[in-house]
Amino acid sequence: MKFSIFMMPLHYPTENPSLAFDRDIALIEYADELGYDEFFIGEHHSGGWETMPAPEMALAKASARAYRIRLGTSVISVPFHHPFHVAERMAFLDHLTRGRAILGVGPCALVTDKNLFGLATEKLYPMMAESVDIIVRLLESSEAIDYDGQFWKIRQMRLQLRSYQQPRMLLAIASSGNPISLELAGKYGMLFLSPAGKNKRNNQSKAEQWNAVETIAAKHGTQTSRDNWRIATCVYLAESREDAWRDVEANIDRDKEYFFSIGLKAPYEAYPGQPAHEITARSGADRRDWIIGTPEDAIVQIERMQGETGGFGGLMLATHEWAATDKLRRSYELFARYVMPHFRGHTEGYRDEWRRIQQSMNDGGIRRDSNPLHNK
Q1: How far is the C-alpha of 221 from the C-alpha of 216, rounded, in Å?
Q2: CB 3.0-4.6 Å disulfide test: which of 34, 113, 316, 335 passes with 4?
Q3: Integer Cα distance of 161 and 140 in angstroms
Q4: Residues of the chain with pLDDT > 90: what percent?
Q5: How far apart are CA 268 and CA 276, in angstroms?
Q6: How do beta strands 170-174 and 101-106 pair?
Q7: Greatest CA separation for the chain
Q8: How confident is the model over 37-74, as pLDDT tens digits?
């Protein structure tokens, strides 16, 4: 199972942005040290809270000190860019990272960014589909290509530097179940990044969405598997559940104001149209399937999510600065020390050995070994 960190990033608007950027990039190095598999950063241009306009630039800087972890965009809002520029810049990043880059794309979910670029919501998904088609062709083709679409038209364009990964770099798409996103995920064997939550999105369960991706992949003759499926949720761990909630509850309430103001209230609702004053930090965390508690709580909750979905290939931990930096780092450390090895099977032998010794003690003690070297 893969474990990733997903950073919007999200910072309170009164904070020094330069210091926040330094702290964000330092977290990538820390995640690399702790053994996380992937780190994703999103693209945003407005709203005041989500602060990085060019995630590939931050990832390039981080790659100089984070040597192992894969580095992805989650997401580049491709309708805002010429597809050639997206393909070329990400191919360049793939070389700078020696094949660790992941190009994550989306149509844009931030309403203020849509307004900034003057793009109607109904155009964003078709624009994204055309852009992804062009990007894939550019990454895969050694020859110049033509494309005559509704939104993008190119003539005899080629990348002089294709991606380090061959036949092309890994692609990802973030989606709550829009049919165009499902089609792209299946057609191109992309990583499928789904938000956690107990509320249905696009009238489909998460399992139904993944089943659709598999069906589409089979139609196109594309290889995919549940290993390509990531579930994204917020995680905060401490030594006790009470400590965890004490650390984060006030700032979850603070962040709600931002998310509700940009039209993302529905995932928090226990029923459609639930009044905002009824939604608390704890009720919202429950509806969104956030993990707040101890490492043991995290293991139980992830196992439940795996059972409900039929299994997924990775968990993405969304970063929110709900607590002081040292406490946030401690949370990531607790997850890496106790949760990740549980799902990777790395502690299975140790746990089985300890259970065997405990059982032997209950049965009357451990028998002394006949080898005298073992009895010293």
Answers
A1: 9
A2: 316
A3: 11
A4: 94
A5: 9
A6: parallel
A7: 81
A8: 999 999 999 999 999 999 999 999 999 999 999 999 99
Position 364 scores a pLDDT of 77
Residue 262, burial from CB neighbour count under 10 angstroms (0-12, 13-18, 19+) = middle
Give yes or no for a contact between 49 and 13, defined as CB atoms under 8 angstroms apart: yes
DSSP conformation letters of 104-124: EEES---HHHHHHHT--HHHH
104 forms beta bridges with 172
| Residue 15, CA atoms < 13 Å, CB-side half-sphere | 17
Give the side-chain half-sphere CA count within 13 A for 277: 0
DSSP string, 296-342: HHHHHHHHHHHHHHT--SEEEEEE---S-HHHHHHHHHHIIIIIHHH
Joined together, the tokens standing for residue 89 give 């810049």
| Distance from C-alpha of 99 to C-alpha of 92, rounded to nearest angstrom | 10
Question: Mean of the pLDDT values across residues 208-224?
Answer: 97
Confidence of residue 368 (pLDDT cuts 50, 70, 90): low
The residue behind tokens 């829009």 is 178
Label residue 376 by pLDDT band (50, 70, 90).
very low
- CA dist 221 and 253 (Å) reads 46
**pLDDT tens, residue by residue, 108-131:** 999 999 999 999 989 999 999 999
Distance (Å, rounded) from C-alpha 128 to C-alpha 110? 15
* Burial letters 57-89, b for 16+ CB under 10 A, else e: ebbbebbeebeebbbbbbbbbbbbeebbebbbb
Give the pTM: 0.94
Lowest mean pLDDT across 80-84, 283-287, 372-376? 372-376
Answer for the pair 134, 98: CB distance below 8 angstroms, yes or no. Answer: no
CA distances to 4, 193, 255 from 50, rounded to whole Å, are: 19, 19, 11
Does the bond joining 13 to the residue before it have cis omega, within 30 degrees of 0? no
pLDDT at 201: 84
Give the alpha-carbon dihedral of 164, 166, 168, 171, to 10 degrees: -80
Beta bridge partners of 153: 148
Mean pLDDT (whole number) for 231-250: 98
End-to-end CA distance of the chain: 41
